[in-house]
From TrEMBL:
GO terms for cellular component: plasma membrane. Required for nicotinamide riboside transport across the inner membrane. This is Nicotinamide riboside transporter PnuC. It comes from Sphingomonas psychrotolerans. It is a multi-pass membrane protein. PANTHER family: NICOTINAMIDE RIBOSIDE TRANSPORTER PNUC (PTHR36122).
Amino acid sequence: MSPIEAAATLFGLINVTLVVRRSMWNYPFALLMVLLYAWIFFHQKLYSDALLQLFYVVVNLYGWWNWSRSRADTGEVRVEQLDNAARLRWLAGCIAASAAWGALMHRYTDAAFPWWDGGIAMFSIAAQILQSRRNWESWVLWIAVDLAAVPLFAIKGLWLTAGLYLVFLALSVWGLIHWTKAKA
């Protein structure tokens, strides 16, 4: 356990708690967390997760803008819902992207657990995009990501991060319940 992992864990807890509550203040903590985790995952040879953190910087900036616009229109951050066809397209896209990214990581890097890590990364991308768009379905994907990430991080000896993802799992269930009640 390093001080950097401890700081990233703390920022992550604050970030996700604020996301569940639909608070705009989640974004500064998200940006701090993902920058620290990019460094951590790179040094653990979890390259998919390291690159994912860089993607998170961009999508968090988009989310900050999108949530600000939503709040300006209604006074609070609105929750949206996908139709069934869109849900199936997102799921199919996640599966296809996971297979393709896992294959690339397996073939071209010395990544630890390229398929597992790659699947977590691709489902995380979809979840983060949906969350930035304020779709409650993002929480379903976050639950799946958290369930897959905990054992991977434990195997890599990232105990604080594994524990953080256990807390993220509980927060994701809370987020799913809270956002489902608030959906448009």
